[in-house]
Amino acid sequence: MTNITHGYPPVRAGEENVKNDVIEVQTVDECLFIIPRSLFEKLRFDETTIDGWHLYAVDYCLEAYEKFRAKSYVMGIEGIYHKSSGSLDESYFKILRKVSNKHKKIKRIYTTMGTWPTNTIVLRSKIFLLKMKVKLRQIYKKIIFNWR
Q1: Which residues in 18-123 belong to E strands, given as ranges?
Q2: What is the pLDDT of residues 65-119, one digit of tens each?
Q3: For residue 112, which of 20, 22, 33 has the smallest C-alpha distance?
Q4: Residue 106, SS3?
Q5: Which H or E run includes 23?
């Protein structure tokens, strides 16, 4: 659910467009998010769990809801472009495993990069399959490129 376009050439970052609405969501992306000062004075970013660039807004949304029942929303704003289309690199997966472990009380974590189970075995399996899919795609491209 997004209005953001990303990458080059620009493509929609999600399937569902947010019109001129304000919609409650589980988490938001790190591209742009606003935290009321009153909440931020009570809850800071968890630098132990989030020891890198990824998922700090996701973790914040989940923790804010767990501790203060603070809800997260997306707003329908047109014309937002983010150059990067994100990456599922090892750093992302490392932090994802930590966020997932921290928020075990919920079954799934919804992010702009996918829906992630908090069950450790299922999450590790999903990450493994994604990595294998990327590897196979690389091998396939190499075979096709060398064949031509």
Answers
A1: 22-25, 72-75, 81-82, 108-111, 114-117
A2: 999 999 999 988 888 887 877 778 999 999 999 999 999 999 999 998 889 999 9
A3: 33
A4: coil
A5: strand 22-25
86: Cα within 13 Å, side-chain hemisphere: 20
> If we measure between CA atoms, which residue out of 9, 7, 12, 57 comes closest to residue 32?
57
Closest residue by Cα to residue 71 from 114, 109, 120, 36: 36
Q: At what angle do helices 90-102 and 120-147 cross, to 10 degrees?
A: 160
The structure tokens 């938001």 sit at 28
Quote the pTM value. 0.88
In degrees and rounded to multiples of 5, residue 46 shows phi and psi of -90, 95
Q: Which residue has the tokens 């690199």?
A: 89
Q: How do residues 109-139 score in pLDDT, each as one tens digit?
A: 999 888 999 999 999 999 999 999 989 988 9
